[in-house]
UniProtKB/TrEMBL annotation:
This is Glycosylphosphatidylinositol anchor attachment 1 protein. One of its GO terms (cellular component) is GPI-anchor transamidase complex. Keywords: Membrane, Transmembrane, Transmembrane helix. It comes from Frieseomelitta varia. Pfam families: Gaa1.
């Protein structure tokens, strides 16, 4: 692909260009398979015109329009930071004529209509990485303040009288978030900012036919973007007070790492207990030859064999190397079947996971 990104910088009149905020929009042509983002570009240009007249900005504001989805945003980030992501020669980024300060946060806009009925906040980044929870809460509060319906995972906050039905609804929302993180694929252009230590989210606006009276117009959406950017402009330091590891069953509730880490620790703890017991069984007293023979004989009677353990460890490492290098093979096979790269890797890993779960039952036979 050969693409071109367009960006502009509004310098902060009250600071020395040491920090910056990014407002980005992905450009999508008419023949794109994704939803149109032309309204987002219109809003970005209008907001840039508005920002030029204001004198209270303490951070530079970068307005960015990228081409070719995540390839464009990755190329721009590489050029901005002067680095190369991945293998050399795969993604070649040009030189940027101008730079701002260190990017603190980024807001990616994907508005698909001039009349917005609801806004979905997307947070999942590359390899399941999440932004700071305060940024997500800020976006949700500003959307609710303007009277536009907010959602997460394209699911609205619904309150059922039946407690089990209410729990099941939010549990499904939680599972959708976990599944999205497990794929490792960013849900928007914001996901590539995370690898540079930049907190970022995507605001995706949808039109709901049949409810024109409740639709929010572009003025309200513009106020949402302005409120978020002005709040970020007032930050004296980077996001660090809230959580970076969390689960969201709804837009206004969260599960912190302090709750779900216990179950994970129990799962991992079992592995260490097993490893410690195996290490204890390998300890052979060398005090006398008789004791040594007795211990060896007792170990054999118990069915302990160091060769079995060695072979298991060897096979585990071989499988690990094979899985680590499998994306190249999966991409090649998927290309033959007209699959996209992300779909080939996702379904390939699903197949590998299923085979891994089935293998212990097959080996017992």
């Amino acid at each position: 692909f050969i693409g071109q990104n367009i960006y502009g910088i509004i310098r902060a009149p009250r600071a020395a260009s040491t920090e910056a905020i990014v407002v980005s929009v992905p450009f999508r042509p008419i023949h794109s398979i994704y939803l149109d983002t032309a309204p987002s570009i219109a809003l970005l240009l209008a907001f840039a015109k508005f920002c030029r007249k204001q004198k209270y900005w303490a951070k530079d504001i970068i307005f960015l329009i990228t081409e070719h989805e995540q390839l464009g945003i990755q190329a721009w980030l590489d050029a901005y930071h002067g680095v190369t992501s991945g293998n050399g020669g795969v993604l070649i980024s040009g030189d940027l004529p101008g730079r701002a300060g260190s990017i603190q946060t980024a807001i990616n806009l994907e508005l698909h209509s001039m009349k917005i009925a609801s806004i979905d906040v997307k947070i999942e980044g590359l390899n399941g990485r999440l932004p700071n929870l305060d940024l997500f809460n800020l976006a949700q509060n500003m959307i609710a303040k303007e009277g536009i319906r907010q959602s997460f995972q394209r699911r609205f906050d619904v309150k059922y009288k039946n407690k089990f039905k209410n729990w099941w609804y939010h549990f499904n929302t939680l599972l959708m978030m976990i599944t999205s993180q497990a794929t490792g694929i960013p849900t928007g252009n914001h996901g590539l900012f995370h690898r540079f230590g930049i907190e970022a989210i995507t605001l995706e606006g949808f039109e709901k036919p049949g409810q024109q009276s409740s639709d929010g117009n572009f003025y309200q959406v513009g106020r949402i973007v302005e409120s978020i950017v002005r709040s970020l402009n007032n930050l004296l330091e980077r996001f660090h007070q809230s959580y970076f590891f969390y689960l969201l069953p709804s837009t206004d509730t969260y599960i912190s790492i302090g709750l779900y880490i216990r179950s994970l620790a129990l799962i991992i703890g079992g592995i260490f207990v097993k490893a410690f017991s195996m290490w204890q069984r390998l300890q052979v007293s060398a005090s006398t030859e008789d004791k040594k023979n007795t211990v060896v004989k007792q170990s054999k009677d118990n069915g302990f064999d160091i060769g079995v353990i060695t072979s298991e460890i060897l096979w585990a490492h071989i499988c690990g190397v094979a899985i680590a290098t499998s994306p190249f093979a999966l991409t090649y096979v998927g290309k033959k079947m007209d699959f996209r790269t992300e779909d080939s890797i996702y379904f390939g890993f699903v197949a590998i996971t299923i085979l891994t779960l089935i293998w212990p039952f097959y080996s017992r036979r």
